[in-house]
Design brief:
By secondary structure, this protein is mostly helical. It has a single domain (24-235, 249-446), classed as Growth Hormone, Chain: A, CATH 1.20.1250.20. The protein has 23 helices and no strands. The longest helix is centred in the middle third of the chain and has 34 residues, at 197-230. The protein is globular, with a radius of gyration of 21 Å.
């Protein structure tokens, strides 16, 4: 396997080695198929974030209870990353990708019985199984992409693949907006609470059917992708010399690597910040637009449209920042992006209204390259089986998407000060996350220089 340390080459390395190709021709088709997987899990992530507000409305729960969607969803990432690493070590990256696609398809298709049952918890089980598959996919695909070509171009190769993740995310947001939120029953929470038991059940069943359709469709698409990759001959992605270290020895080496350990911590807070900003933009926007005289249903749809705009900004910014990595050291770029996130988070908290939601949307431009940049910086100098488990740790860090949104929901449900709205105040948590990421960027430049 190519050296993952190449995932954080400093500012001018790719310029100094123009002869190094990004992807060798014989690996191009495999690279394209694996890169498409980045878009597939992006779709799942971003069709799901708005579902917290949707389930809250369908089942008449609190924001805290509805956030169990994120706990189940990102809990699958956290719990299955290391089992995925063991599986990949025993078999191959291709086997890991196939296992991931298989679980992803099963999770999506489980929305059929969950919708029929009509209770909240079957959906949580479906989400957990789906994201267990995503954990296998991400644990396999990220280091696999790093291995598909020269070490000198690994940074750009990973960031190019990661650039397709928000394209899938954009499609997921569009599906959430146009095929779920816009088609759900328009009656607001207060009206639903006055319905008879029979009428409430009828509305709930209809809304759950609407909510389930995109997941069922993507489950079928994933099953087709599974068959395509299963029949495709893929590169091994293995180094010429494999290590014989025990798992205990691997973990001991990783724990003694400060750049890596700090990277896992930074990744926890980055993922938490991303999920909070994209989940609770619905709550923030609904609060703003209802105050401006819009109905709750229309305000939710308009808020999700702002979420789509945020993803477009995220996507465009990722391509721009990938280009800038040719000239700017990853740690420096990470620190700069985090500083922008801090400023815009302060605006989201203090300004409120339309200006506040503009700041919240703008945060996505700052988040665009954080995940792969933290990932690459943390993996510098880590090879072979160590890299497989190191990658698993960075994917397990996605568990930040479980407890941090839950804490934000607790703030929303329990805030009592009149100085700021509960939703505005809750964005103090993303602010804290960006402060931690900025510190990691600084330490990557000053304390752990290449």
């Amino acid at each position: 396997m190519a050296n993952p340390s190449a995932s954080v080459q400093e500012s001018h390395q790719s310029v100094d080695a123009p002869s190094e190709s990004l992807v060798p021709k014989h690996m191009l088709l495999a690279f394209m198929l694996v890169t498409f997987c980045f878009a597939l899990w992006g779709f799942a992530n971003d069709v799901t974030n708005p579902m917290v507000a949707a389930f809250q409305k369908i089942f008449l729960t609190t924001a805290t209870d509805a956030t169990w969607v994120q706990v189940a969803y990102y809990g699958g990432y956290g719990l299955m990353a290391f089992p995925a690493a063991f599986f990949i070590r025993r078999y191959s990256y291709k086997a890991g990708i196939l296992m991931g696609l298989g679980l992803y398809a099963v999770g999506g298709l489980l929305f059929v019985p969950a919708s029929y049952i009509g209770e909240f918890y079957p959906f949580l089980i479906a989400y957990f199984i789906l994201t267990s598959g995503l954990s296998f996919l991400e644990t396999s695909a990220n280091p696999y992409i790093l291995s598909m070509g020269p070490a000198a171009t690994a940074t750009r190769r990973l960031n190019l693949a990661q650039a397709f993740n928000p394209i899938g995310g954009l499609l997921g947001m569009y599906a959430a907006s146009q095929f779920i939120l816009a088609r759900m029953d328009s009656r607001d929470r207060a009206t639903r609470e006055t319905l008879s038991a029979a009428d409430f059940e009828a509305v709930k069943s209809a809304d759950l059917a609407v909510l389930s359709h995109p997941y069922i469709v993507i489950g079928i698409v994933i099953a087709v992708m599974f068959l395509l990759i299963a029949c495709m001959k893929m590169p091994s992605g293995k180094e010429t010399v494999e290590g014989n270290s025990t798992t205990k020895e691997i973990f001991a080496r990783l724990i003694r690597t400060p750049r890596y350990v700090e990277g896992v911590i930074a990744q926890v807070f980055y993922v938490g910040a991303q999920i909070m900003c994209w989940t609770f933009i619905i709550h923030y926007g609904t609060e703003v637009f209802v105050a401006q005289g819009m109905s709750e249903a229309a305000a939710q749809v308009k808020s999700q449209n702002f979420n789509v705009i945020a993803m477009i900004i995220f996507c465009v910014s990722r391509f721009i920042c990938t280009f800038l990595l040719k000239y700017i050291a990853p740690g420096t770029l990470l620190m700069t992006l985090a500083a922008g996130g801090i400023v815009l988070s302060v605006g989201t908290i203090t300004l409120g209204g339309s200006l506040g939601i503009y700041c919240l949307v703008g945060i996505s431009g700052c988040m665009s390259l954080m995940f792969p940049t933290i990932y690459g910086i943390a993996l510098e100098g880590i090879r072979g089986d160590d890299a497989k488990f190191a990658a698993a740790g960075l994917i397990a860090a996605i568990v930040g998407g479980t407890f941090l949104p839950m804490l934000q929901a607790v703030i929303i449900d329990n805030w009592s000060s009149s100085a700021l709205s509960a939703t505005q105040a809750s964005f103090s948590l993303p602010l804290l996350c960006f402060l931690i990421i900025a510190v990691y960027g600084y330490r990557a430049v000053r304390v752990h220089p290449k």
